[in-house]
Amino acid sequence: MSKNKPKEELEKLGKNILEQIKKQKNPEIVIPIRALSNINYDEKSKTIVMGEKVSSRYFFNIAHAKKFLQTLEIASIIKKELLETNKHEHLRGIFYIAKRTIPKTNINIVDDQVESDKIIEDLEVITGLSREQMHISANKMGSLVGNIIIEDSGDKIDCSKLGKGGYSIPSITDEIEFKKVNAKYVLYMEKASTFERLVEDKFWAKNNAILVTSQGQTTRGIRRLLQRLSEEHNLPIYVLCDGDIYGAYIYSVLKYGSIALSHASERLTIPSVKYVGITMDDVIKYDLKKQLIKLDEKDLARIKQVSKYDWFKNNKDWQRQFKMMKEFNGKVEIQSLSSKGVSFISEIYLPEKIKKKDFLE
Amino acid sequence: MSKNKPKEELEKLGKNILEQIKKQKNPEIVIPIRALSNINYDEKSKTIVMGEKVSSRYFFNIAHAKKFLQTLEIASIIKKELLETNKHEHLRGIFYIAKRTIPKTNINIVDDQVESDKIIEDLEVITGLSREQMHISANKMGSLVGNIIIEDSGDKIDCSKLGKGGYSIPSITDEIEFKKVNAKYVLYMEKASTFERLVEDKFWAKNNAILVTSQGQTTRGIRRLLQRLSEEHNLPIYVLCDGDIYGAYIYSVLKYGSIALSHASERLTIPSVKYVGITMDDVIKYDLKKQLIKLDEKDLARIKQVSKYDWFKNNKDWQRQFKMMKEFNGKVEIQSLSSKGVSFISEIYLPEKIKKKDFLE
User: Fold this and answer.
1) B159, B175, B178, B193: which to substitute to probe chain A, counting the most A Cβ within 10 Å?
2) In chain A, what percentage of residues exceed pLDDT 90?
3) Is A167 a catalytic residue?
4) Contact A162 B155 (CB under 8 A)
5) For residue A182, is pLDDT > 70?
6) B278: which of A49, B2, B243, B272 fits an S-S bond (Cβ 3.0–4.6 Å)?
7) In this predicted structure, what is the pLDDT of residue B199?
8) Chain A residues closer than 8 Å to B164 by CB
């Protein structure tokens, strides 16, 4: 996409409103609907996608007028304050910029960040631009190491020479470039402690892997980074999570997308991603039954819910996992592998599973 | 401290027990008490320190026997699995290693991580070793950029050439070396979004500062890193937090230490640290009243509690801040400065405050 495309798309939105005003129409913005009623699991692309339903937002409509104003105001902030100055701002900052009082009234343009966040999502679907293309960031999280040279803001960063710490992943990863990639696969793990274990054991060098951790939730920045490594360098992406329903869901968001971000599926999902573990079969194979943590009500309810999702309901392998979770009445953490030895995960567990391609899909 | 000191200290603990057994004594471990009753604020050193009270743990005492066993077992795991192999393990991993059944019984050595965590803290006060010296890690968090070259595990890392991402701070920072430091001060901020703003504006290059963010709580690794930069390179450390009671507390932990980690004060606190903002005076000076967020019950209760802490109760400047928080009935976030312009924080707010040394202490 050209550097000017985002500005042009926002200008187009404004010009369109202007034309309607000139024609003395009631100004209207057409917005694809982001509700559950307009979200489908597409069997062919194997991703969660938005349907074709749209709604209209009118200026001369008491129920719409404020949101109409918010839409134009935030579009204007993005164009003037961010794109034209080539700066980035986070969601919370956009809220504070937009939170001002309409002159000669006591009405604020926005009173709560939820309002500006929703408008930003609206602008994504209205313009087809991603939030990142509009220079809006969210959480900065995660680390990366491996045989990869990244160019970030003019700096060439050799991620094989960053000690135990690694490269701190920025919130927006669309703008970094992969200058040289020499790896067989990418291993993404939810836990930073596992990352530190693998780094200390030089797992990435011995196995020629790129290691990525999120230190918590998988941010959009990390999803996009993994997708780009998959698409631009054809690297397999393996996911290492706790053996529980939340781990399964982290994996499914990477692979199929999420309901909340269905409109961004194309830029975020990685259909080829594979789940390396931990599985319920590992519990038997590696004798981890003693390390199981008992399921509580919340776990059970979530298993019930997730197992019914369109993208899981016909997947025999995953249904078998969910059944075993219930039979064992337990879940298992990655760190429980330490009970077999501090480096069991890097010397035995991962090399064996990856060599045998013992994945869940 | 010599490389072998940690091993020797743990051996000393074991040998001492052995000698007691040879003398047919009831084996005893003497442990400084880590309860509130043994914690004082030391006016002279201006840190929260442990008193001199100790307790004894006996093997032949039904109430002590299990903890006695846990103490020796975990000391043994640390020596054999970590120090002798030169590996590190996180708290959760230590729990899983220790969680095994005593042969011919159905009793586990530990059943819950709380137990192993407490024993590790006991071992810190028994041996005088830090958790980090025993190779036990906790959370990996945070990023760093600036004119500093770090040596981490043999890699020399120039933190002025790491793009927008920066160096991802490891959980244990005792082992990194500062090879070359060329900065006037360190700015530590709680929020990663502020870090990204300052990095994009090249604040660190323009002001010759090292920037550190935690992306959440200030981990022990970050506290130690800041302390080492202060002590080894005589750098001023400035703290940038939200203008609320939680920001004040983050600052006070850095400066005075915390109740939970009073035994580690010497290795973690930075008496010279200064608070750069946001203050309640900033709210007036920079016209941020509209950006105030109303205090809730929890905020008010926490203000009452924190303002009575020994290290705050005689501090007039901070008492004035707490009073203003109550008068305004509000708190203010760092990001609210965006309402003055995206780069107001890096172009006006911080340079002005730092130039005028407009700090709270």
Assistant:
1) B193
2) 91
3) no
4) yes
5) yes
6) B243
7) 97
8) 152-153, 170
Helix (H) or strand (E) holding B137: strand B136-137
Question: Taking Cα atoms as reference points, which of B356, B354, B357, B360 lies closest to residue B211?
Answer: B354
**CA atoms in the 13 A half-sphere facing the CB of A186:** 26
- CATH 1.10.10.10 in chain B: give the residue spans: 5-137
Asked if A170's CB is within 8 angstroms of B164's CB, the reply is yes
Check: complex ipTM more than 0.90:
yes
**What CATH number does domain A143-355 carry, 3.20.20.450, 3.40.1360.10, 3.90.230.10, 3.40.50.2300?**
3.40.1360.10
B143 vs A: CB within 8 A: yes
For the domain B5-137, what is the CATH code?
Answer: 1.10.10.10
Closest partner residue to B96 (CB to CB) among A157, A165, A335 is A335
The pTM score is 0.95
Query: Is residue A354 within 8 Å of A237, Cβ to Cβ?
Result: no
Nearest-angstrom CA–CA distance, B299 and A349: 47
Average pLDDT over residues B20-32: 96
B36 — pLDDT class (breaks 50, 70, 90): confident
Indicate the range of A209-218, A281-290, A303-312, B310-319 predicted with least confidence. Answer: A209-218
Residue A27 CA to residue A237 CA, distance in Å, equals: 46
Interchain proximity A90–B162, CB inside 8 Å: no
Residues of B in contact with A82 (CB under 8 A): 342
DSSP SS3 for A74: helix
